[in-house]
C-alpha cells in the first residue's frame, strides 16, 4: 500500500478535502452563532390601532433569542401572534442586523356571546373591546357562516333603516335576528334572504305605520308573516240583539 503512490495521493487529497470542509463548517458555524451578529433593529410595519408599541417591545425583549442567522423565524412569528389583537405576523431578515415584522390586526366585527370577538374574516379571537358590536349566538364552528349572514342582513335591511343587534343560529340551522329597535325577526331555515327582503318591503309602509309596538315578526310563512304586538287589545265583540 505504501508503495502505491497513486493510492497515497488520492488519500492525501481526500484528507485535504475533508479538512477544508471541516474548516468551512467551523467557519460557517462561527459566523452564524457568533455574538458579533446580533439583531439590532426591529422594524414594525402595518396599520395598528389596538396593538401598542409597549406590547411589541415586550415581545422583542423577552421572546426573541439568537443571532441574526440563528433566530427562529417561525417562533418569532408565533411570539408576536400571542398578542390578542394580532391576526398575523410576517417576519423577514434584513441584512445586516434587522428584522422586518409586518403585523396584521384583527378587525372586530361582532361579539361571540359573552366570550370573545369575531373578526371580519370570521375568525374568533379573545380580546377586550368597548365597541358597540352585534352579538353572535350560535354553535361552535359557525363563526364564518354568521359573519356571512351579518353582511347579507345588513344589505337586506338597508331600506328599513334598521340594523342587526343580535343574531341567533340554532343547531338545526334556523336563524333569528334581534334588531336595534328591539324587534325580533324569526327567519327560520332556507330562503332567509327572501324573507328579509319581504320584511323590508312591508316595514316602512305597513308595519312601522301601525299604532302599536311590535316586538316580534315571524317571517317563516310562505307568502306572509305574523306579528306580535304586546299592547294591542282587540275591540270587545259586539253582541247582536
From TrEMBL:
Protein function: Essential cell division protein. May link together the upstream cell division proteins, which are predominantly cytoplasmic, with the downstream cell division proteins, which are predominantly periplasmic. May control correct divisome assembly.
PROSITE patterns for the chain: POTRA
Main localization of the protein described in the UniProt heading: membrane
Record organism: Aquitalea magnusonii
Pfam families assigned to the protein according to its UniProt record, in alphabetical order: FtsQ_DivIB_C, POTRA_1
GO BP terms in the entry: cell septum assembly; FtsZ-dependent cytokinesis
HAMAP family listed in its UniProt record: FtsQ_subfam (MF_00911)
Keywords: Cell cycle, Cell division, Cell inner membrane, Cell membrane, Membrane, Transmembrane, Transmembrane helix
Name used for this protein in its record: Cell division protein FtsQ
Subcellular location: Cell inner membrane; Membrane
Subunit relationships: Part of a complex composed of FtsB, FtsL and FtsQ.
Amino acid at each position: 500500500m505504501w508503495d502505491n503512490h497513486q493510492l497515497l495521493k488520492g488519500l492525501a487529497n481526500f484528507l485535504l478535502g475533508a479538512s477544508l470542509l471541516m474548516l468551512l463548517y467551523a467557519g460557517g458555524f462561527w459566523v452564524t452563532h457568533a455574538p458579533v451578529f446580533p439583531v439590532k433593529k426591529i422594524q414594525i410595519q402595518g396599520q395598528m390601532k389596538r396593538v401598542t408599541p409597549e406590547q411589541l417591545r415586550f415581545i422583542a425583549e423577552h421572546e426573541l433569542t439568537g443571532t441574526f442567522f440563528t433566530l427562529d423565524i417561525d417562533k418569532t412569528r408565533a411570539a408576536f401572534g400571542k398578542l390578542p389583537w394580532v391576526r398575523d405576523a410576517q417576519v423577514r431578515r434584513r441584512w445586516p442586523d434587522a428584522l422586518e415584522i409586518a403585523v396584521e390586526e384583527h378587525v372586530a366585527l361582532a361579539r361571540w356571546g359573552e366570550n370573545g370577538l369575531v373578526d371580519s374574516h370570521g375568525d374568533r379571537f379573545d380580546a377586550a373591546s368597548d365597541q358597540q358590536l352585534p352579538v353572535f349566538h350560535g354553535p361552535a364552528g359557525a363563526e364564518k357562516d354568521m359573519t356571512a349572514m351579518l353582511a347579507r342582513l345588513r344589505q337586506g335591511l338597508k331600506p328599513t333603516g334598521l340594523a342587526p343587534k343580535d343574531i341567533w343560529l340554532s343547531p338545526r340551522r334556523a336563524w333569528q335576528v334581534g334588531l336595534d329597535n328591539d324587534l325580533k325577526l324569526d327567519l327560520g331555515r332556507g330562503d332567509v334572504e327572501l324573507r328579509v327582503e319581504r320584511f323590508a318591503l312591508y316595514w316602512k309602509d305597513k308595519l312601522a305605520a301601525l299604532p302599536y309596538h311590535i316586538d316580534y315578526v315571524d317571517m317563516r310563512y310562505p307568502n306572509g308573516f305574523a306579528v306580535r304586538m304586546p299592547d294591542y287589545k282587540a275591540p270587545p265583540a259586539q253582541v247582536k240583539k
